[in-house]
Specification:
The chain has 254 residues and is mostly helical. It is built from 10 helices and no strands.
Amino acid sequence: MPPALLLARSTLTEARRGGLPWLALGCLALAFGLAAFLSQVAMTESRALQAALAAAVLRAGAAFLLAAHVAASVVREANDKVTELALALPLSRSQYYLGKLAGFGACGACLAAACCAPLLLWAAPGGVALWGISLAFELLLVAAACLFFAMTFAGVVPALAATAGFYLLARSMAGIQLLARGPLAEESLAQSVARGAVDAVALLLPRLDAATRADWLLYSAPAPAEFGAALGALLLYSGLLAAAGLFDFHRRSL
């Protein structure tokens, strides 16, 4: 087996033994509990509200759990000199980095599959399948971002903070742009500069608001072009983050 695939398999084994499946079950239980509570207080369209709330909780929970696992795993290996021991073997830095990323991406795919199971109670299987595929690619982006930050900052808290900031900003950037261009915004030089700065930041971030959308579960499935564009953007930014992480990993001395 190629060294990168061996590292990916060991990363999956580490996640299984490290308690990630139990944390995922806790996230599923939380989503079930909130959906059950909402079904008791909602007056109309309780099924749609349950699906939307469960999807939002599961998406956010899966992203947080994966980021926490990636940051803790990378920092622990660096502190225990496991990274240096692995690189002392006939293993290149590129193989090590890409093997770890592949393993974390596989963990994200498993989390996405687990998150799809409860949504089948409230949504059509086709919409759930597309939502789950999009979530798997979104979690791959989260894994690539957290791996880059964990390798760069060498700390769990800084890596988690940077990943959370990146994820939340990318997810809410469309709303920020709407606020900047809203009818209540004053036309002034400062407002124009702020609007330009917001647009410039938006160009550097992935459009996470276009991926893993709850309306795919509630209404109709996305058009093939729209779905392909969302997945392509996630893959593109994951590749860019992997390239940036490889560049930083190669230039540093361990």
